[in-house]
């Protein structure tokens, strides 16, 4: 490595603390009569707070001591909704619903007890929500005035997206049962209101017994039901006809990511065959409005769009680009002029930002995708860091990620992979990990090193691999079963899938059966793909980062893997964070982990020299 570049003033100036501080993010954009609202995460304290935009001004609604975040299914989502005279939100600490006016009063508890709530929708004076209690899930309606609870649906293992038609006469939702995940097989359900106000028995509109994933049901103003379904190979908008669903005109592309979190909104029906939505092409996001047989493109310079809303004048979205981080934007529909309402401030000037280049490369019997970020400076054949996203049924995006820029500023190239099994490339690509986790993802991680090295873009002998959660599993498998990487980093990563299956939560309770197989019937396959049992194969240094409060990948997994490596004489180290769960949220912890990882890799390269 070019040590002069690695320790240059410019590289040092973009510290881990600066990179982490730039990681402000937004979620759950909502538009109502009182204005625009969003949930804003700031890394300095890890809290999420509601903001209100009106009359060209933004103000924070959430007082100290509160954080707006749901933990239903552990990953949460849909943590607030707009009421008649304010907001209702899930408080992170106790997971209860609170009512808050727009006048600045202290929030008032609407519920109490041991239930958790998520995917909130407000309708007719009630808050529709997914209720979770002791691994039992239901749909409920909670009176926004007195907190009285009404049961809407129960019996399925999981629920999402309760949605009421504008006239209040039709209720739709998504449900699914174990062993399925929401991105493999779900059902679109519909109930009609009876004359006495009760709901009739629900009927399945789509997905009954089919290998079809449905998400984001919506009603238009006339009460027609729509949803996204992947029955055509991609998550695309379909609309209700007399006795079935009919495809709306759209691109052959995914119009949503995998629904790991509740409350997503990447499309909105506008009546008939018209709709506003975002979709992915070659990994890059697009934003368009389909109407009157033609499509108007509002993408501009942005490459990812989430949480859409619109009124007669503006389209609103949470968006990001290769040179700007997440922001709340308003796009004037007529002129397409963009106004940034919050966020979007890059931590580096444009000329110092490494831009993503589309990766499409051969791997195994197929093809894999991702993004390549060149090292900054004049370093020839720089070292490479391969980023493996979690999930594993998730995705990375070509947007300004301060963590990636941290590495690029230090003379590393970065390959951010959407390995086979990632979302954003259609159902077939997404299903590629079925019974193949720990194989095809590892193939893709190794193949990208050879692919980039052949082109002279990186030094294939100085490649490193890092990943969090499921990405940590791929990282450890790549180190155990291939001789490609010089070191690796596992952030709260899986080292023992069988132990994970015993300890994990209900939402992912059968996920490993889909990814690897039945732990008893396919025990040999598990043994062959368990990094902990093959720690002796790892010959290179490994660094671990683990939250002590993690309920998804419990800390003992990391301790067991660390011990196994040290018993074999491998240079392994670990850092534990007492106040972190699955995924680090505190700025100081994030910065510490990022800097320690860089120092670890630098030490490895210095020792080899």
From TrEMBL:
Annotated protein name in UniProt = S9 family peptidase
Residues covered by the Peptidase S9 prolyl oligopeptidase catalytic domain: 402-606
Which one Pfam family would you cite for this protein? Peptidase_S9
Q: Which GO terms describe its molecular function?
A: serine-type peptidase activity
**Signal peptide location:** none
Please cite one Gene Ontology biological process associated with this protein.
proteolysis
Q: Fetch the PANTHER family from UniProt.
A: PEPTIDASE S9 PROLYL OLIGOPEPTIDASE, PEPTIDASE S9 PROLYL OLIGOPEPTIDASE CATALYTIC DOMAIN-CONTAINING PROTEIN
Q: Which organism is it from?
A: Pseudomonas chlororaphis
